[in-house]
Amino acid sequence: GAGVSQSPRYKVAKRGQDVALRCDPISGHVSLFWYQQALGQGPEFLTYFQNEAQLDKSGLPSDRFFAERPEGSVSTLKIQRTQQEDSAVYLCASRSGGVTDTQYFGPGTRLTVL
Amino acid sequence: QKEVEQNSGPLSVPEGAIASLNCTYSDRGSQSFFWYRQYSGKSPELIMFIYSNGDKEDGRFTAQLNKASQYVSLLIRDSQPSDSATYLCAVSSGNTPLVFGKGTRLSVIA
Questions:
Q1: Residues of B in contact with A38 (CB under 8 A)
Q2: Which residue among A40, A72, B15, B58 is buried most deeply as judged by most CB within 10 Å?
Q3: CB within 8 A of A53, min separation 6: which ones?
Q4: Is pLDDT at B3 greater than 60 in this prediction?
Q5: pLDDT digit string (tens) for B45-63?
Q6: Quick one: which H or E segment has residue A75?
Q7: What SS3 class is residue A86?
Q8: Test mutation, A41, A46, A51, A90, chain B, max B CBs within 10 A
Q9: Integer angstrom CA distances of residue A43 from A103, A108, B15, B86
């Protein structure tokens, strides 16, 4: 595809439910990032993959958050036992790894935990 | 902890004026600097990136970087109502994730 895609675009979950958010990066982009953006805030880093390797997961807020990218393309962010404070927009970005080092964002998944 | 600071605004400018958006960062090792525009309910969209001290111009946009002062700015000339959005400053140290500021909300008044 031409850009980064994410699904679902909107997710409503009951507290305690598990959710899975999907990201399809730009074809050929080796680096993939997940960010969490709360209302009125800038995006905050969660985790980073280079191909299938998860190089940095220091931003994951708790062990309820888990991300994978098993074949180095599509990535899934899973949140177990969702809490109300998990409500946010989850943004995925990919980067070619070239000299310009720019990241391109997907449309995001808006998660609401009731 | 690496921090990026921005005035949250709102910054209001009349149509046709120059809008000046400012950002400071704490990590002296930062190498790459980005400005993203984010419309309400949308994802961030890259406007400019800059790596070297000085000015970089692209159409109506000029990014300015002063590493000694740890300061980066974005100037928007001939501001249009369609420029009304939140502008996010982001900083990276090479191959590290972006650290974002909270964003400055710009309102261009027709």
A1: none
A2: A72
A3: none
A4: yes
A5: 999 999 999 999 999 999 9
A6: strand A75-79
A7: helix
A8: A41
A9: 13, 11, 29, 12
**How far A80 CA sits from the closest chain B CA (Å)?**
24
- CA A22 distance to own-chain centroid: 7
Kindly list the residues from chain A whose CB atom is less than 8 angstroms away from the CB atom of residue B96: 56
Give tens-digit pLDDT for B8-39: 889 999 999 999 999 999 999 899 999 999 99
Contacts of A56 in chain B (CB under 8 A): 96-97
Chain A residue whose CA is closest to B33: A102
Is A1's pLDDT higher than 60? no
Q: How would you class A21 by CB atoms within 10 Å of its CB: exposed for 0-12, middle for 13-18, buried for 19 or more? A: buried
Structure tokens at B7: 């005035």
Is A1 touching B (CB cutoff 8 A)?
no
